[in-house]
Here is the input.
Amino acid sequence: MPTIPRLFVDRPLQSGADIAGSAGQAHYLGSVMRRAVGDEVCVFNGRDGEWRAHISALRRDRIAFRLEAQLRPQAPEDDLWLVFALLKRDTTDLVVEKATELGASLIQPVITDRTNAARVNEARLLAIATEAAEQCERLTIPEVRSPRPLPDMLATWPANRPLFAAIERSDAAPIKPFSGPCALLVGPEGGFSPAELDALQRYQFVAPVTLGPRVLRAETACLAGLTLLRSGGCR
Ligand code: SAH
Here is the structure.
């Protein structure tokens, strides 16, 4: 049996509705997946749960879906933020994809003293997060924010959300499962500067943590940290 494509569609979802997909979805389903009118798909929009639908119209750059029945109602998802010092393009792409799979609800790149990149292509990162959410059966797409300087982010941080700051070669407490809303902070390849480490110490919501005795690449630290924070189980 062919797999049923799962697609994010940013339209209200209700029984009987006929909704337009994107040109990209028309191309993907028509030319890549070789699907035709009448074939089944699943759609979600981050708000109305997941729906069974079928392709009701298909041309080269246009597609529509007819909604049939809700398969899953919208349910609360994990409230886990990832804040990471912006990496080079391919590594940033990897972090966004894998953080989506690991349940991050918000992804915030930051600029630190030793960050070598300053810009991201937000549309591209959102497309990567969307594809990962479609693949891993999430009901939401994580919010991918534009990069901002670390000091600004710390100055406006919601004080009731713990920020677990991953610090290598430190005597910080080992990271452990935490089930509530929280965030993981990971530094750049060059590590946090001494001034940044001092600044982090001054905020009550910052909890320094170690990921073990080896110095990990930043992307490894992002993925291991998210996994370990939720290793006690989560929704
Ligand atoms: N070049 C730096 C290492 C930076 S590693 C040096 O040699 O000192 C990149 C980031 O990954 C760090 O800023 C930290 O946030 C995280 N990290 C790597 N290994 C870690 C560990 N064992 N424990 C906690 N955080 C770690």
Q: What stands out?
A: The mean pLDDT is 96. The CA atoms of residues 6 and 42 lie 5 Å apart. The radius of gyration is 20 Å.
